[in-house]
Amino acid sequence: MLRVKVRDIDEVGEVIDDAVEAGGDLLRVNRISFGIEDSTVLYDEAREEAMADAYAKAEQMAALAGVRLGKLIYMTDSPATSYRPSYNNWEMSTRLLLDAGDFTPTEISSGGLDVVVNVHIKYAIG
Questions:
Q1: For 33-74, what is each residue's pLDDT tens digit?
Q2: What percent of the chain has pLDDT over 70?
Q3: Which of 18, 22, 72, 117 is buried deepest, with most CB atoms within 10 A?
Q4: What's the rounded Cα separation, in Å, for the pair 126 and 65?
Q5: Under DSSP, is residue 63 helix (H, G, I), strand (E, B) or coil?
Q6: What is the rounded CA–CA span in Å between residue 109 and residue 89?
Q7: Is pLDDT above 70 for 78?
Q8: CB distance 23 to 2 below 8 Å
Q9: Assign residue 39 a region: left if phi > 0, alpha if psi is -120 to 50, beta otherwise?
Q10: What DSSP state is assigned to residue 24?
Q11: Of 67, 66, 71, 80, residue with least CA distance to 115
Q12: Which 3 state secondary structure label does DSSP give 10?
């Protein structure tokens, strides 16, 4: 088993092709996954947006209930990153036809990564 980290999405297909060529029929590509090297800034931005959204919704709900939004009494967050492959363009066809000498390069579509922060807040009402 081998794990390889490639930082340039345009190089992934070539890395797979080179590995398949070197390993031949004995090689199996089990999984390709994508990630963000440093997601700190993205999570900070997502958290800021989530808190503003939560506050706006709490204000609206308080107004609809005929009460005032009070002091914040509880808050927590749960960050999550999910990968969504771009299925429209997803093609991973590592084909190495040694008999015919024909080769089709592997194409990788990066898809997208969602950085999501769920916030849970409680306000006092008055």
A1: 788 888 899 999 999 999 999 999 999 999 999 999 999 999
A2: 81
A3: 117
A4: 11
A5: helix
A6: 6
A7: yes
A8: no
A9: alpha
A10: G
A11: 80
A12: helix
